[in-house]
Amino acid sequence: xxxxxxxxxxxxxxxxxxxxxxxxxxxxxxxxxxxxxxxxxxxxxxxxxxxxxxxxxxxxxxxxxxxxxxxxxxxxxxxxxxxxxxxxxxxxxxxxxxxxxxxxxxxxxxxxxxxxxxxxxxxxxxxxxxxxxxxxxxxxxxxxxxxxxxxxxxxxxxxxxxxxxxxxxxxxxxxxxxxxxxxxxxxxxxxxxxxx
Length: 196
Hints:
Helices cover about 70% and strands about 10% of the residues. It is mostly helical.
């Protein structure tokens, strides 16, 4: 009967790969999380502005319907007095119906925009959301770019996906070193014990 023990002491591939990958894995993950955060913020801002826009569209449509109804009332009075032809009343009725349809479409779009905003924010869909703010914004200086090399540098410093790509290049270099380290000898220790 015999006993044989093998133990790998040094493996160049494992040493080079583990050290190199562990050095870059954390920053790679952090930049990925930072990029996702930027995407969520962008999506929420877009949804918020879309909800504000549809709210304004509903207000404009409602005012148009009210104006058209006042016009219809005035034209109907003129037709009753014989001052205007019946065709004008019919035209005013058609205009009111068309504007009421546009108002309904704007209200549906507003509800959809608010639902999208609630979804992005994680609010329950049955909660009511009231928006504050306006579509007019002041441009903060840190959002303005002056062009040329400064804008490219700003984009490069604020884009985690680009940093992630740079880290990906480093990880590929490590992978190349690991692949070429296959030619580095492996040191094993072994022992044999035979009992007669």
